[in-house]
Design a protein that fits this description.
The protein is of the alpha/beta class. The protein is built from 14 helices and 20 strands. Helices cover 26% and strands 16% of the residues. The chain starts with 8 loop residues before the first strand and ends with a strand. Bound molecules: alpha-D-glucopyranose and magnesium ion. The site of alpha-D-glucopyranose has 9 residues, from loops.
Length: 520
């Protein structure tokens, strides 16, 4: 079975919020392993596990202090091995997260850098620069952190500052220093030797900065979390041409291993063409399709993204990915309006995603119809909340309800509460409550993933996109998906109804999608 990832459904596990084995209120690796049969039964092909490496957890693991060890909070290295082995027994692949743009400020390299002199080899692994102004009291340039505030922090009262495109605890590495790619080549091999099937590459568009570190034009206008990111019009810190040399090197490393190892890029870039560059034949295998995440609930918007994505990827021999939710964005049920309508639309958009050629990424809890949770300010932990006072990303990271009628809903053993409180109204949404319940979101996902395997996964990659007002249909061989984004019922398409995202009668109700087959 070659290039399994091209048509895989990958389920994203946010480690601290999936399943807690030891009752400390924080999800962990043995917790994930114990729930792998659930994922197998759900019908996904692979699981992507967010960072579980040693970390002070200022950005919940995206601040890595040791890339080749497991944080005691989540278990031990043997637990990672056990997870991978058990997943493979069940026929599931495992993708681990790789965080190459920055380390934690507690990484041995950064500690050594702070202890060393300006201009030393230790400092040269990061981006230390002299401040501006008479007493160097101004940052070296005008860049903003994605999490708010300046992207530079001053080292004590010296004239040196270091760059951090994210939190102050996440110093950016200098990828022009050969020690850095050498270290990450070792990290890749370490995990490949432990049999992981692939990597999700964090901030893949950020590793190289324009060498001059010149000011960013127009940055004073943008302050939104991801606006300061790769979508800014002038972005000397993002999507630089040299970043592709890194991925060519990684491609060669992955190719040394058997078993079709892969890597998927988190690359926020301005165009589908620049995004497709990350998946050229000698680079990474996939890149998240963030245009799909950002598309509003609109047939025209969906059609537009499909019609831009497919040719851009075809041009480089790449395969599209369809992403609606992840641990950084509002859950799609909420984004589409929330409540009953939002949940119905979310299921419909999922059914649309699953019909399209390529691979789909699901985020834990979407199969339960979870929406954003209103997390009380005192419970918020996202560094962007501390830096900007904006609510941040905790709302999509609330631990999964598995069973029972009150928090922690089986998230961990006993009655201990998870690291963010779960809502009191989640009893009907637990895995237990929805299992076997006709019409539940969970049963819908199970059915959709099963039908996808038999009908859509290997169907032709050629599609025919048809937009009729608020109704979008996409035909792939014998299979047609139709989604009604309008407010009035539309006609059901001809053919055999295979699956629907909600109740359908003689027509296709608003906020609903169906698959019909014209085979036989
Ligand atoms: C990526 C991660 C996000 C993290 C950031 C910094 O965007 O998905 O969660 O905060 O990188 O590592
Ligand atoms: Mg735990």
């Amino acid at each position: 079975m070659s290039e399994w990832w091209r048509h895989a459904v990958v389920y994203q596990v946010y480690v601290r919020s999936f399943a807690d084995s030891d009752g400390d209120g924080i999800g962990d690796l043995p917790g994930i392993t114990s729930r792998l049969p659930y994922l197998r039964e759900l019908g996904v092909d692979a699981v992507w596990v967010t960072p579980f490496y040693r970390s002070p957890q200022h950005d919940h693991g995206y601040d890595v202090a040791d890339y080749t060890d497991v944080d005691p909070l989540f278990g031990a290295l043997s637990d990672a091995d056990e997870l991978v082995a058990r997943a493979h027994e069940l026929g599931l692949r495992v993708i681990v997260d790789l965080v190459p743009n920055h380390t934690s400020s507690e990484h041995a390299w950064f500690r050594a850098a702070l202890a060393a002199e300006p201009g030393s080899a230790e400092r040269a692994r990061y981006l230390f620069r002299t401040g501006r102004g008479a007493d160097a009291s101004e940052p070296p340039n005008n860049w903003r952190s994605v999490f708010g505030g300046p992207a530079w922090t001053r080292v004590g009262d010296t004239d040196q500052w270091y760059l951090h495109l994210f939190d102050t605890s996440q110093p950016d590495l200098d990828w022009r220093n050969p020690e850095v790619p050498a270290m990450f080549a070792d990290v890749l091999r370490f995990w490949l030797d432990r049999d992981v099937d692939g990597f999700r590459v964090d901030v893949a568009h950020g590793l190289l900065k324009e060498a001059s570190l010149r000011d960013q034009r127009g940055q004073e206008k943008s302050s939104d979390l991801f606006d300061v990111g790769g979508l800014a019009e002038d972005a000397p810190m993002w999507d630089q041409p040299e970043v592709h040399d890194v991925y060519r090197q990684w491609h060669a490393i992955l190719a040394e291993y058997d078993g079709d190892r892969m890597a998927v890029a988190e690359a926020w870039t301005r165009t589908v063409e620049s995004n497709a560059r990350y998946v050229r034949p000698d680079e990474l295998n996939q890149a998240f399709n963030f245009d799909w995440v950002m598309a509003p609930w609109s047939a025209a918007a969906f059609a537009d993204v499909i019609e831009r994505t497919l040719p851009a990827l075809a041009a480089v021999g790449g395969t599209p990915t369809w992403v609606l939710s992840n641990h950084d964005v509002q859950r799609h049920a909420t984004r589409y309006g929330g409540g009953e309508a939002g949940r119905a639309r979310a299921r419909a958009a999922t059914l649309l995603s699953l019909a399209l050629p390529g691979s789909a990424y699901l985020y834990q809890g979407e199969e339960l119809g979870l929406e954003e949770v209103d997390v009380a300010p005192a419970d918020r932990q996202d560094p962007s909340w501390f830096r900007t006072g904006e609510p941040g990303r905790d709302s999509c990271r609330v631990p999964i309800p598995w069973a029972g009628s009150e928090p922690p809903y089986g998230f961990g053993p006993g009655a201990g509460q998870p690291w963010i409180p779960q809502p009191g109204e989640w009893a009907p949404l637990t895995v237990d409550a929805q299992s076997g319940e006709p019409g539940s979101t969970l049963e819908f996902y199970r059915q959709a993933l099963s039908v996808r395997r038999s009908l859509a996964r290997d169907a032709s990659d050629a599609v025919d996109v048809h937009l009729d007002g608020d109704v979008l249909s996409v035909r792939r061989g014998d299979l047609t998906v139709v989604v009604n984004c309008g407010s009035a019922p539309s006609a059901l398409p001809e053919g055999e109804l295979v699956i629907a995202s909600g109740p359908v009668g003689d027509d296709l109700p608003p906020d609903t999608a169906v698959w019909v087959s014209s085979a036989g």
